[in-house]
Write a structure and sequence with these properties.
Elements (H helix, E strand, L loop, with lengths): L17 E2 L2 E2 L27 H20 L17 H11 L6 H11 L8 H12 L8 H13 L3 H13 L6 H13 L3 H9 L10 H13 L3 H11 L7 H13 L3 H13 L6 H13 L3 H13 L6 H14 L2 H13 L6 H13 L3 H13 L6 H13 L3 H13 L6 H13 L3 H13 L6 H14 L2 H14 L6 H13 L3 H13 L10
Antiparallel strand pairs: 1-2
Length: 532
């Protein structure tokens, strides 16, 4: 690793090798386009619900959403919320619904999960009221899943006193508290920038009957490193490394943390310490360093580390090659990307989803749809299932070429391959069809988004509202603007907002004009009414 000593350049963005103390290969190589959902890799696995349970959970969630839309601030003193908070009218609705079926813990967990599954306008008080109603019912089966989900939701909205209350409730009700419970809490503390509190949570584990073992130790370090809190992670590691046997996962996590923090020299020191301790770096250790060097522009040095990796008998994997490709993909150097891909094939390393997505992105940047589609067909032939990030660059390229029929064909192909579109997919296609005056297709895509529970964003509503304003349909523009504000808690841009207000004024709808202004002011989206 002598090559690492030559520079201490700042690094901006790195990948995480660890999730919950276990190496997660997918986290080392991200898709070329950022994921649009909230960055909430909660540790729990979503339960498989029966059809009737799914329907019940969806109905509970609809009640919560409707109440939140009509009462965005039901508690006059919302900070902090009363842990025993209930909403009598909602409790009555819940009880009526539950009269026909028993409510399992899996249903409760799913409802709380859905409440936290949005970027904006989380109905935390309604979710808390539901949790309190459900878990206090006679005969309710108390297991950790719904409690852990409530801890996660409380942490997401930074109500940590509430999160601790739920954990205390678990203890009082003899619900099993596990490492997973504290992993969720630690992750939320770190995301909130509260590293000291995260470590304090680890130190309190024994109070709740949870053994702070090496896995828990790895979890805390991994989460701190993932959020660029390398110095705190290092101090935590140094304070307890005598108690827990360090392994390649712990050291690799620390190397990653220092790389993400932009301190290559510290990453090198930890790398040397790992080897001195008799722990051989693995493919993820090398891949992290290669990624860090590529991201700070030290491509030659990254290839030196790659050569060292080969000499050490450590075989590179697709993550390694993807890390070498990424910098060239971002710079639009298709030839360089293909060189790395050919080297990958020569060494007998199979391409993965990210590899193929990189190749497609490069061809699309060159406006070479034909080659991009060839890669798409190849990956399918090789048994690699595409995702939305595979198709989105192709759709963008098709839109740029104004090939409406091509967009229809590609969208049909996407469906044939059972590939789910994401918000970006729908936005790109809706924009294209809006520009081509295909209103029916725009509305069909919006309906699909709702059916598949793909969360719209401000760009989705911008397309819809702009389309209707251009048509002079003030009523539909107004409807979508209110839906955006009230249901999705999204703030329209000022040009979009003013465009709707202008439509209302021109139509003589001054009452609706004032209602919209009032909604914006109430939500804190506008500080004062605009002059009519």
């Amino acid at each position: 690793m002598a090559a690492l000593t030559k520079s201490n350049l700042p690094l901006r963005r790195f990948l995480s090798p660890l999730s919950q103390g276990i190496l997660n290969p997918s986290s080392l190589s991200s898709a070329p386009e950022p994921h649009l959902q909230d960055d909430d890799d909660t540790s729990q696995t979503a339960p498989n619900l029966a059809t009737d349970e799914t329907l019940i959970a969806d109905t509970f969630h609809s009640l919560i959403k409707d109440h939140h839309r009509n009462n965005p601030n039901p508690n006059p003193n919302p900070t902090p919320p009363n842990p025993t908070y209930t909403i009598p009218s909602l409790s009555s609705d819940f009880s009526q619904l539950s009269a026909a079926a028993s409510i399992s813990s899996a249903v409760v967990r799913r409802v709380i999960e859905k409440c936290g599954g949005v970027r904006h306008g989380i109905p935390v008080l309604q979710a808390l009221a539901f949790f309190n109603w459900a878990t206090s019912r006679d005969g309710f089966e108390h297991n950790p899943e719904p409690y852990n989900e409530m801890v996660d939701l409380a942490g997401k909205v930074r109500q940590f006193d509430l999160a601790w209350h739920v954990i205390d409730l678990m203890k009082a009700r003899s619900v099993e508290i596990t490492v997973e419970t504290f992993s969720i809490l630690v992750r939320r503390y770190v995301r909130a920038g509260l590293a000291a509190e995260a470590v304090h949570a680890f130190n309190r584990m024994e109070e709740y009957g949870v053994n702070p073992d090496r896995i828990a130790f790895s979890v805390v370090i991994g989460i701190l490193c993932k959020k660029r809190r390398a110095s705190e992670a290092q101090a935590f590691f140094d304070s307890l490394k005598h108690k827990f046997e360090a392994d390649v996962i712990l050291y690799t996590s620390l190397v990653n943390g220092w790389c993400r923090a932009g301190n290559i020299s510290e990453a090198e020191r930890v790398f040397r310490e790992m080897k001195a301790a008799g722990i051989e770096p693995n493919v993820y250790s090398y891949s992290i360093v290669i990624d860090a060097l590529c991201r700070c522009g030290q491509i030659t040095r990254a290839h030196d580390v790659f050569a060292e990796m080969i000499d050490a008998g450590c075989n590179p994997n697709s993550i390694t090659f993807n890390n070498l490709m990424r910098v060239h993909v971002k710079a639009g150097r298709t030839e360089k990307v293909l060189q790395v891909y050919n080297q990958m094939k020569r060494l007998g390393c199979n391409a993965d989803l990210i590899t193929y997505n990189f190749l497609i992105e490069c061809h699309c940047k060159d406006e070479n749809v034909e080659e991009a589609v060839k890669v798409l067909n190849l990956m399918v032939k090789k048994g690699c299932s595409p995702n939305a990030s595979t198709f989105n660059p192709i759709f963008r390229c098709i839109v740029k070429l104004k090939d409406v029929n091509g967009a229809h064909r590609m969208y049909a192909k996407m469906k044939d391959l059972d590939c789910k579109a994401n918000t970006v997919t729908y936005n790109v296609l809706m924009q294209m069809f809006a520009e081509s005056k295909s209103t029916d297709m725009v509305l069909k895509l919006k309906k699909e988004m709702d059916e598949y529970e793909v969360e719209p964003n401000v760009n989705t509503y911008k397309v819809l509202i702009s389309m209707y304003c251009a048509m002079g349909h003030w009523n539909n523009a107004y409807r979508f603007c209110r839906e955006m504000i009230e249901e999705k808690c999204l703030k329209p841009s000022m040009p979009v907002y003013e465009m709707v207000l202008k439509q209302l004024r021109n139509a003589g709808q001054l009452k609706k004009h004032e209602e919209l202004v009032e909604k914006m002011v109430d939500r804190g989206f506008a500080t004062r009414p605009l002059a009519v």
